[in-house]
Amino acid sequence: MNNNTNKRAAPRQFAISKFADTYDTGIEREDATWNDLVTKLAENPPEAATKEGLHLLKLAKFGDTINPNGSALRHNANVEFLSGIVAEHDAGTVSFEEAVTRLKAAGSDGVAAFIYQSPSHMKDGKGPRWRVLAPLSVDTDPAQHGPLMDKLNGVLGGALAPESWTLSQIYYYGRVTDREYYKPERIKGHHLDKLVGITPIGKGGGRLAEARVIRGIERDEEHEPSIEETELSKLV
C-alpha cells in the first residue's frame, strides 16, 4: 500500500502584501492559508481609532523594483503575481446584503470570497460601502487582473468601483473602534478563476454606470491611489 495515499496536500499559501500607511514606506510580505486569513479578519480584525490608523493590503506579491518616476514600490510594474482579487463598492447603491446574496448565488455553488464593510459604510449619508476579497486557485499572472475583475464585477452586477481595476491598488482592512458597522461574511464556493457561467462586466459598466449618471462621479477617500491612478485622476 502506498504510504502517500492518505496524505493530504498542504493547504495553499496566499501571498499577502501589507502596507502600514499610504506613504509607501515599505511592504510587509506574508503568506497565509485562506482559512487563517479570513478567520483573523472575521474574528480578530485589526482595530484603530481612525481609518488612517488601519493598515492596507493586496492579495499579491510585490517585488523590490522602485518606480523610475519616484521612490515607490507600489506600482503596477512591480506586481509579480496575484494570489487573489480585491475590489470595492463605493457608490453607495448596492447593499452589503445584496452583494452577499450575489456571491453565494454565482455559478452553481457560489464563489469563494470574504466581504466586509469599509469604514465609511452607512456613515454621513454615504450609503453602503464594502470590499471583497476573492481567492484564486493558483498564483496568477498580473495580466489576468483585468479579466478576473470583469468576472467578479459580473458576479456583483456591475457594482465595483473603477479603482478596483488598478493593478497596484491597496485597501484598508480591519475596523474602526467604537463603530458597529463591521459584520463581515465568508462565502464558500469556487475559486474565482475556476468559476464558469458568468457574463463579465467591464470597468464602469452595469449598475455602476447607471449610478454614476444619476449621482455624478464620486471619489472614494478610503483607498490609496496608485501612481498610475493619480496620473489619470482627471479622467475619473
Gyration radius, to the nearest Å? Answer: 18 Å
* SS class: alpha+beta
In which order are the strands of the major sheet placed?
Answer: 2-1-4-9-12
The low-pLDDT segments are: 210-223, 225-236
Largest sheet: 5 strands, antiparallel
Mean pLDDT: 85
Count of DSSP strands:
12
How would you describe this protein?
There is one protein chain. The chain is of the alpha+beta class and 236 residues long. The protein contains five helices and twelve strands. The protein has helices at residues 34-43, 96-105, 145-155, 207-215, 227-231, and strands at residues 13-19, 28-33, 47-48, 56-58, 60-62, 79-89, 113-117, 130-140, 170-172, 175-176, 185-187, 223-224. A five-stranded antiparallel beta sheet has the order 2-1-4-9-12. A five-stranded antiparallel beta sheet has the order 5-6-8-7-11, sandwiched between helices. The longest helix has 11 residues, at 145-155. The termini are far apart.
Describe the protein's topology.
Elements: E1 13-19, E2 28-33, H1 34-43, E3 47-48, E4 56-58, E5 60-62, E6 79-89, H2 96-105, E7 113-117, E8 130-140, H3 145-155, E9 170-172, E10 175-176, E11 185-187, H4 207-215, E12 223-224, H5 227-231
Parallel strand pairs: 3-10
Antiparallel strand pairs: 1-2, 1-4, 4-9, 5-6, 6-8, 7-8, 7-11, 9-12
